[in-house]
Amino acid sequence: MGSIEAPPSTATKAPQLAFLGLGNMGQAMCKNLVQKGKLEKPLILYNRTFSKTVALNARIGHSIVAESVEEAVAPADITFSCLTSEAAVNQTFDKILTLDVKGKLFVECSTVLAEHMNELSRKVEAAGAYFIAMPVFGEPTMAEAGLLSCCPAGPPEQVERIKPYLVGVMGRGVVDLSGQEPGAASLLKLIGNVFIVNMIETVAETHVFAEKTGLSTENLQKAIGVLFGGPYLIYSERMASGDYYKNEPLVAISDCYRLSSEILGLAKEKGASLKAYKAGNKHMQLVKSYTKATGDISGIYGAIRLESGLDFENQPSQ
Length: 318
Fold this sequence. Notes:
The chain starts with 16 loop residues before the first strand and ends in an 11-residue tail after the last helix. α5 packs antiparallel against α8 (182-213), α8 packs across α13 and α13 (275-290) packs across α14. By secondary structure, it is of the alpha/beta class. The chain has helices at residues 24-36, 50-60, 69-73, 86-96, 114-126, 140-144, 156-162, 182-213, 217-227, 230-241, 243-246, 253-270, 275-290, 300-307; strands at 17-20, 43-46, 63-65, 78-81, 105-108, 130-133, 136-137, 148-150, 153-154, 171-174, 177-178. It contains 14 helices and 11 strands. The strands form 3 sheets. The protein has a 6-stranded parallel beta sheet, sandwiched between helices. Strands 7-8-10 form a 3-stranded mixed beta sheet, with no helix packed on it.
C-alpha cells in the first residue's frame, strides 16, 4: 500500500482528514465527505476489518487506505471516529495516545455514556490535542443521503473548524452545543435514543394492530407518510416490506440492546421512569434471542407480532 507521509506544516494548508470506523454509518459519512466535502487531500480510511477499508476505498475514490490506527492518525489534522462500543473507543484512543498528537483535532461520533466522553476528552486534551464529541441522529439510509443531525460539543473555535463538513455534506442540521462539555452531546444522544426506540415501538405496534383489525398496510403507510414522514416512514417501510428479516441488519440489534440496557441503568441511577422504553428493551431482547443476535432494530416489529400470536416474519404482498 505504501506509507502515508505527514503533510508539511503550514498555517494555511488544507486540513488532512481521517476517519476511523467503517460500519454502515461510518461508510456513509465517508462517502459524503469525499463526494460533497470539497476535500483537497484524499480522506484517510481505517477499519479493524481491513477488507471493509479496501472495499470502501474502491467505491468512493479520493481516499487512502491505512493499515493501522496509528498510520491513519499520524498525518491527519482532523480525525473523525464512529465506533461500535465504549470498549472499541477505549482501544482506539489507547493507540492514538501513544502518538504525538499535539495540535490535532479528534471528533468522536460514537454513542457512549457522558462520563466516559468527558474522561476521554480530558485525556486527549492532556496530550495537547483538541476534542469534540459529535454524536449524530439518523439511521444508515439517512446517513447515506447526507441527512444526519450532528450534535457537536467542545471548544467553539474547534467546532467552527468542522462545520464545513456538516450541513450539506454529512448532515442536514446541527444541534450546536459549542462551549459545553463533550458529555453534554453524549447525554443528548442517549436521551434522543429514547425518542427513537419509542418511535420504532409505536410504528411496530400500529402495524400489528392494523393487521389484526384488517386495515391494509397500504392505507397505514399512506397515513404515516402524510402525518409523520421522515424516520417514521423509513421504519414503517422496512417493517412492511419484510426488510427487517430478509436483509443484512442496518442497525444491529446486539448493539442496540447493549445501549438500551446502559440507558436504563442510567435512568434507574437518576430515578427516572422509562416504562415505554423498557418495553422496547424487552422487545430487543426477544429479537436478539430469535435471530441469534443477527437481527435489525426494526425487528421489534417481529417481536410484537410474536406477542400478538403472529409469526415473527410477515408476508408482504409482492
